[in-house]
């Protein structure tokens, strides 16, 4: 159990660190992929609901620590994505890229919408039109492309559940 928690903290911390340091250097504005979102959405899609929720809290806290924004906003925004990703993870879709791509697009819109609402409630200046054009739109594209690349690799790393034997 401790090994899994340490592994999750390391993966999420590395993703958040890359998100805050290397991604801005390598990808010009507008919008960039959100590596923590991609990892959390994939875990929620492939794993249990509880596992996805735990990864969302950890990943959100890492993002907030590196961003300098209000602590907890990213965690709450990622928590909103987990039920969507997990709910769309029916076994019939797990081998296909259509549903993970839909989770990436819809989840990005949901996450950034929740983040914008929370920031507005906390009285941070939020311009929804600008955010949609310059941040959310391009981020949806980046995250969808990122999910198409990341999902097959993470799917191979996950242990396969045992199939129940059919018989009489």
Automatic annotation (TrEMBL):
It is a multi-pass membrane protein. InterPro entries: Cell_shape_determining_MreD. One of its GO terms (biological process) is regulation of cell shape. Keywords: Cell membrane, Cell shape, Membrane, Transmembrane, Transmembrane helix. The chain crosses the membrane at residues 6-23, 35-55, 61-85, 97-123, 135-154. It is found in: Cell membrane. Belongs to the MreD family. GO terms for cellular component: plasma membrane. NCBIfam families: shape_MreD. This is Rod shape-determining protein MreD.
């Amino acid at each position: 159990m401790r090994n899994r928690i340490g592994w999750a903290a390391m993966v999420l911390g590395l993703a958040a660190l890359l998100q805050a340091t290397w991604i801005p250097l390598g990808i010009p504005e507008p919008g960039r992929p959100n590596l923590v979102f991609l990892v959390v959405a994939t875990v929620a899609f492939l794993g249990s609901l509880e596992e996805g929720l735990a990864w969302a809290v950890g990943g959100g806290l890492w993002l907030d620590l590196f961003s300098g924004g209000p602590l907890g906003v990213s965690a709450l925004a990622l928590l909103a994505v987990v039920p969507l990703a997990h709910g769309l993870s029916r076994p019939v879709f797990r081998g296909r890229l259509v549903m993970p791509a839909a989770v990436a697009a819809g989840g990005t819109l949901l996450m950034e919408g929740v983040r914008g609402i929370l920031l507005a409630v906390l009285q941070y200046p939020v311009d929804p039109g600008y955010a949609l054009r310059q941040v959310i739109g391009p981020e949806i594209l980046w995250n969808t492309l990122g999910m198409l690349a990341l999902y097959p690799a993470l799917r191979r790393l996950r242990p396969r559940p045992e199939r129940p034997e059919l018989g009489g």
